[in-house]
Amino acid sequence: MATTPEVISVTRRLEFDSGHRIPNHDGQCRHLHGHRYAIEVTLTGAIADHPGQADDGMVLDFGDIKRLTNQYIVEPWDHAFLVAKEDIGLVDFLGSIPDHKTVVMEQVPTVENLASAAFKILQPVFQKAFGARLVLSSIRLYETPNCWADVSHS
Ligand SMILES: Nc1nc2c(c(=O)[nH]1)N=C([C@H](O)[C@H](O)COP(=O)(O)OP(=O)(O)OP(=O)(O)O)CN2
Ligand SMILES: [Zn+2]
């Protein structure tokens, strides 16, 4: 009887620092503040059976996850202020600071919305790079060591 090929997930964690605020929050989070975020990117696929090749025995080289996540998430968001486009006064203020690194987000930068935005950015990136061989199965984004959000491939 044929066996079903194993499907395995690999996860790479990267960290970055960003400022944000949740403008309508009823507590401290409406104030400008920052976090050391940690993003965990998980890809699922089969283990490569490529004897003699660099990726033999891997679902995907952790270095590839690092490179693409750095390029599309960490480098744009690190030491940036993540501001909701609806937060007009703050968008204008940040725009008035010469050369300030600001990322205007479609939605308020809760950890849920940031995780969702990261997933939407990375999903086509990994699909283009690795095709159907791999699936971006989930992203976990930590806002603090105690608070995080998970987004999964449906
Ligand atoms: N569901 C969500 N709730 C909250 C979010 C969020 O993104 N999604 N964000 C915040 C604040 O921005 C803040 O990042 C979290 O604050 P807090 O709960 O205080 O977390 P701490 O780990 O700093 O907790 P301490 O107990 O103060 O150490 C709020 N809510
Ligand atoms: Zn916060």
UniProtKB/TrEMBL annotation:
Q: What class of enzyme is it?
A: lyase
* Record's keyword terms, sorted: Lyase, Metal-binding, Zinc
Could you tell me one molecular function GO term of this UniProt entry? metal ion binding
EC number in record: 4.1.2.50
Pathway per the UniProt entry: Purine metabolism; 7-cyano-7-deazaguanine biosynthesis
State the reactions this protein catalyses: 7,8-dihydroneopterin 3'-triphosphate + H2O = 6-carboxy-5,6,7,8-tetrahydropterin + triphosphate + acetaldehyde + 2 H(+)
Cofactor(s) essential for the protein: Zn(2+)
Q: Which NCBIfam families match?
A: queuosine_QueD
Q: Which family does it belong to?
A: Belongs to the PTPS family. QueD subfamily.
Query: What is the protein's name according to its record?
Result: 6-carboxy-5,6,7,8-tetrahydropterin synthase
**Gene name for this UniProt entry:** queD
